[in-house]
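Design a sequence for this backbone.
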């Protein structure tokens, strides 16, 4: 990381961590020689002096350090960040029959901000805690009362507990190292255990767990999104046809099948869309004559106003309009996504650049409040802005549908007329959603979306049986708006930078 702070950019490339000690031992084979570290020199000023003293007790009332921890102790240099499970407490279990070693590990880990750190003196006690507590990491000696650390590792793997397992031993040999690795131990550490070696292995193990949990969550989210799209595909009233590059039909929904049955009998999955369909596409335009003829047929009013139509079209390739939804927007305190890199949206509400400006304003405000604690700054920024980004992405897509179809519905014009009348009568409660987004800089996007849903239901309710505005009970609609919508002043803020 740069000395002046984290890098803010639009691309994340994960880095790899060093392999555990056990992997190297196992790869060297049965003839490998185990190198045992020399004893650590102990001096009154050394961190390792704690091995000869009873560690000071950590007060039980001390608050847990849940995310990244910055610490600077008197007489010591400031510590760097210690990454733990983001936004969650990290539960570590230390299993060893040596009381002094358990206490020492407990002290090292709690001083680094990990909490809670639990200890067990033997196999049975460890099993009881594993069965009753949520454990994110286990550190165990091989030699235990009643059984061994390898047996504990086997139990963890056989019961599909997805927490990393670090093996500690004072009697290293190739067989235990290989067995530990075979059952999925994250690391194999030889006693005497150096403090930094322990903390480094813990950090890497928790980082691996964090990435694995994130991967599973992403897979689950992708599956939920796939099921959602599938449900939309099957239930949409409009016909949807999915084709490949050769215009072969590979999937259709029920509405499309009905349409084919009425207009194009015999066309279905496996068929190829003919020239009567494929040729009516921008993608088929290759030369000036074809471009000019297409526009004169399909868009005659526009063609007459664009003198260099064919040249402009050929020099400006057809692009795509898309929405970017992703999580997370940051990697600990190292990199942060802003603007379109994090949440690109379609342009049908004209808010993409404004949303990026709001990112900057929010980030600046958080930095001013909590300083350059970058992991916490980035996590808080995402927590506050993600819902707003998703809200305006949804509303931009809604606006496209409105401009494409809804404006032709007479009821749409009536609902708009009622909305403006309610804004005139009860402006402290009712502001049309479009106006909240475009002209009210102090109303967050998420609030505009949520209030918009309530207002949409209200407008549909009071215009359902009306042919024109005179048929609407505007007094009752005004009273309903005042009941259902809290005063707008209660949700305003000074964060947004949207301008009319």
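Sequence:
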């Amino acid at each position: 990381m740069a000395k002046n702070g984290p890098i803010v950019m639009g691309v994340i490339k994960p880095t790899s961590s060093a392999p555990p000690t056990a992997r190297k031992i196992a790869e060297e084979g049965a003839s490998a020689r185990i190198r045992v570290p020399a004893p650590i020199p102990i001096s009154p000023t050394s961190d390792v002096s704690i091995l000869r003293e009873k560690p000071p007790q950590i007060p039980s009332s001390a608050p847990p350090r849940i995310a990244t921890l910055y610490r600077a102790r008197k007489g010591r240099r400031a510590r760097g960040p210690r990454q733990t499970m983001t936004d969650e407490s990290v539960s570590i279990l230390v299993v060893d029959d040596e009381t002094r070693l358990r206490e020492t590990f407990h002290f090292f880990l709690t001083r680094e901000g990990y909490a809670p750190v639990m200890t067990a003196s033997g196999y049975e006690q460890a099993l009881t805690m594993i069965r009753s507590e949520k454990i994110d990491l286990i550190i165990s000696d091989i030699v235990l009362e009643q059984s061994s650390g390898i047996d504990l590792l086997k139990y963890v793997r056989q019961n599909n507990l997805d927490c990393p397992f670090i093996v500690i031993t004072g009697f290293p040999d190739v067989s235990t190292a290989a067995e530990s690795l075979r059952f999925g131990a994250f690391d194999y550490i030889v006693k005497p255990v150096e403090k930094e070696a322990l903390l480094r292995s813990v950090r890497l193990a928790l980082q691996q767990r964090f990435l694995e949990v994130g991967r599973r969550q992403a897979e689950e989210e992708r599956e939920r999104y796939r099921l959602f799209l599938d449900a939309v595909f099957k239930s949409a009233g409009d016909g949807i046809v999915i084709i490949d590059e050769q215009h072969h039909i590979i999937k259709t929904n029920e509405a499309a099948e009905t349409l084919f049955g009425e207009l194009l009998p015999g066309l279905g999955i496996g068929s190829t869309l003919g020239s009567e369909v494929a040729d009516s596409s921008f993608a088929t335009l290759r030369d000036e004559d074809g471009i000019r003829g297409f526009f004169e047929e399909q868009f005659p009013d526009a063609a007459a106003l664009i003198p260099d139509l064919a040249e402009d079209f050929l020099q400006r390739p057809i692009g795509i309009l898309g929405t970017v939804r992703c999580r997370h927007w940051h990697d600990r305190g190292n990199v942060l996504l802003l603007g379109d890199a994090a949440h690109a949206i379609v342009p049908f509400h004209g808010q993409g650049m404004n949303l990026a400006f709001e990112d900057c304003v929010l980030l600046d405000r958080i930095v001013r409040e909590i300083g350059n604690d970058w992991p916490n700054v980035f996590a808080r920024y995402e927590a506050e802005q993600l819902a707003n980004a998703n809200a305006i992405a949804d509303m931009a897509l809604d606006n496209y549908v409105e401009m494409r179809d809804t404006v032709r519905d007479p009821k749409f014009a009536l609902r708009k007329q009622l909305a403006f009348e309610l804004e005139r009568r009860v402006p402290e409660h009712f502001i049309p959603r479009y106006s909240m987004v475009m002209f009210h800089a102090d109303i967050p996007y998420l609030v505009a979306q949520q209030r918009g849903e309530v207002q949409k239901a209200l407008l549909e309710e009071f215009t359902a049986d009306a042919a024109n505005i005179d048929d609407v009970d505007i007094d009752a609609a005004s009273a309903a708006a005042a009941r259902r919508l809290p005063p707008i002043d209660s949700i305003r803020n000074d964060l947004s930078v949207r301008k009319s």
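Strands lie at 7-8, 92-95, 117-120, 137-141, 165-169, 187-190, 241-243, 249-252, 330-331, 335-336.
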